[in-house]
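Data availability (excerpt). The following record was deposited with the supplementary files.
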Amino acid sequence: SAPNNTTQFLMQEHPTTTPNQTPVGISYDSDDDCDYNSISSADDNQVGLESSGVFMENDFAETFENIKAETLDSKSKSQLISDIVNLEKTVSDLVNERQNVRHSSNDANV
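Predicted structure:
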């Protein structure tokens, strides 16, 4: 059966094993025993983590923009208009719901 959402689809595509989550600054030898003599400086690790994080953010942003552009390019003008109309209705419904929640919370406080 088809997945209910994108997350389910993505999770089915990838193995469920978790990567080795070694704490920063500590390395493990091949026997998985902690080697406290190989603790590196926190500054070196911080620079590595920051550059890795920046790379991952940039890579994600680039991939997201590419997929978004491909998705929009594949839609017809009428599909795009329909999407906008649906989004406007959703926004209107959410605004109304928020107003109703505010009114009901104000009535409860009186």
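Summary of structural features: Confidence is low (pLDDT under 50) at residues 22-30, 34-38.
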